[in-house]
């Protein structure tokens, strides 16, 4: 592991160490995607099992929204707290801690005996999941040369959606049903092994180590008889990253504006994905399960395949077209395709799976764009916190959006096409907001 002492400059990681960082961070995001995909395919089976005779289709949809909102709320808090932890104790330790925590809480879900127990556990799973993304993305961004960043950001963006694809293929062959759903939660609990490997064995970011070393050396003027004597203050000895003022720094000039922009730009695709796109899976479950129990997994697989490609290419599109123009076009395409998915086709129709694939591809270009763009907004000493705040504050809006879509679902008589179509218009907001964002196309990650 790279080390630094005050006054020293940590050496760049070797090629082997950089690949180890990329592999571990990618694996962390793959398993996070596996976890994110778990409840969309399992929610109705869990509800039918735990509610018993009280289950109805409308109540199943409401609980799906509650489980999702609870997860998003946990991710919002977790991303901010664990992002801040990454600036304080290091990217690798914070990421490893996050993985172990969410894996153990997910495993406990396999023992749940009531909907309320599962609801609380999904919140705690979210706390851990929220910390994986900012620390993994920032760690990789800081460990790889600038010339490689668009490709590396694409790999990171694809990680979560590859995990969704992985789960979809698993449950195609080992079905999740009201009588057999606990096994998937116990399997998810094994992810704690990766967290321990990351915590104890992964190299730390040289940029973070250098930033910590420089801040330990910042002098504090102390009045003396003839002037000032520079000695390290307690804050500088511990490193500025240990100071809770990091969060306050993000919400005051000169970082206030970029923080606000980052939050809005991350919120739009998150709310769109969870308040609109994800309704296609319980819709497919309701329509097709009686004749094909594996159809919902097929739908998720087609979406995840498109999403894996889209999230990988999102950074390339941003590098090619420029950050702002790319975001505008992605928002336009996501709006059109999401509405088309809910209004121009339906589960079991021949056209449904191709449209699902296309929607997954376009709507997740955002998630290749974000790993490239968000680290560019913030200086090193607040980068993990800034990326975590931007990405995960958006999850507060996502939780609210999902709950609202659940209310709309009931108000619209349990109509999946209606709720998905109305929620799709959140993507259109991105076509306006992006023109207020800084253009970071020519910025590198050096302070």
Task: Please tag this protein with its features.
disordered N terminus; 447 residues; globular; mainly alpha; single chain; Growth Hormone, Chain: A
What would your notes on this structure say?
By secondary structure, this protein is mainly α. It has one domain (15-436): Growth Hormone, Chain: A. It is 74% helix and 2% strand. The protein contains 19 helices and two strands. The protein has a two-stranded antiparallel ribbon with strand order 1-2. A hairpin with a 2-residue loop joins β1 and β2. α3 runs antiparallel to α6, α5 (149-173) runs antiparallel to α13 (295-321) and α11 runs antiparallel to α16. The longest helix has 37 residues, at 15-51. It is globular, with a radius of gyration of 22 Å. Mean pLDDT is 84; it is low at 1-7 and 220-243.
Order of helices and strands: HHHHHHHHEEHHHHHHHHHHH
Q: Strand order, biggest sheet?
A: 1-2
Largest sheet descriptor: 2 strands, antiparallel
Integer tally of domains: 1
Measured distance between first and last alpha carbons: 23 Å
Helical/strand content category: mainly alpha
Oligomer: single chain
Count of strand segments: 2
Query: Mean pLDDT across all residues, rounded?
Result: 84
In the predicted model, the low-confidence regions spanning at least 5 consecutive residues are 1-7, 220-243
Query: Over all CA atoms, what is the radius of gyration?
Result: 22 Å
Percent strand equals: under 5%
């Amino acid at each position: 592991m790279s080390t630094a002492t005050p006054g020293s400059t940590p050496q760049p990681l070797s090629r082997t160490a950089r690949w180890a960082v990329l592999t571990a961070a990618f694996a962390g995001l793959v398993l996070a995607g596996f976890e994110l995909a778990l409840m969309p395919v399992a929610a109705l089976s869990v509800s039918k099992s735990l509610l018993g005779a009280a289950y109805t289709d409308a109540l199943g949809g409401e609980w799906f929204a509650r489980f999702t909102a609870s997860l998003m709320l946990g991710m919002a808090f977790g991303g901010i707290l664990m992002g801040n932890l990454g600036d304080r104790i290091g990217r690798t330790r914070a990421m490893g801690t996050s993985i172990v925590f969410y894996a153990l809480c997910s495993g406990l879900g396999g023992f749940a005996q009531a909907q309320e127990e599962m609801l609380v556990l999904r919140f705690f799973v979210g706390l851990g999941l929220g910390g994986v993304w900012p620390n993994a993305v920032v760690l990789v961004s800081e460990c790889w040369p600038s010339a490689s960043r668009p490709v590396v950001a694409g790999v990171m963006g694809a990680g979560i959606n590859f995990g969704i694809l992985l789960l979809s293929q698993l449950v195609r062959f080992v079905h999740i049903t009201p009588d057999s759903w606990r096994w998937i939660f116990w399997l998810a609990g094994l992810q704690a092994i990766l967290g321990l490997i990351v915590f104890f064995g992964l190299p730390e970011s040289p940029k973070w180590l250098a930033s910590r070393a420089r801040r330990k050396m910042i002098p504090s003027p102390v009045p003396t008889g003839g002037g000032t004597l520079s000695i390290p203050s307690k804050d500088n000895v511990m490193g500025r990253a240990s100071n809770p003022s990091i969060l306050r720094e993000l919400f005051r000039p000169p970082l206030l504006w970029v923080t606000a922009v980052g939050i809005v730009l991350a919120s739009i695709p998150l709310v769109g994905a969870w308040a609109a796109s994800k309704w296609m899976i319980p819709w497919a479950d309701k329509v097709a399960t009686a004749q094909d129990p594996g159809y919902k997994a097929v739908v998720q697989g087609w979406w995840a395949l498109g999403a894996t490609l889209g999230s990988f290419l999102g950074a390339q599109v941003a590098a090619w077209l420029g950050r702002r123009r790319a975001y505008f076009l992605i928002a336009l395409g996501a709006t059109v395709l999401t509405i088309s998915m809910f209004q121009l086709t339906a589960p079991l129709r021949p056209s449904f799976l191709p449209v699902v694939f296309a929607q997954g591809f376009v709507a997740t270009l955002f998630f290749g764009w974000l790993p490239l763009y968000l680290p560019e907004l913030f200086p090193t000493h607040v980068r993990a916190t800034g990326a975590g705040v931007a990405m995960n504050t958006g999850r507060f809006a996502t939780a609210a959006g999902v709950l609202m879509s659940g209310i709309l679902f009931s108000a619209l008589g349990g109509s999946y096409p209606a709720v998905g179509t109305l929620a799709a218009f959140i993507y259109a907001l991105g076509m306006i907001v992006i023109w207020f964002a800084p253009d970071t196309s020519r910025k590198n990650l050096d302070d």
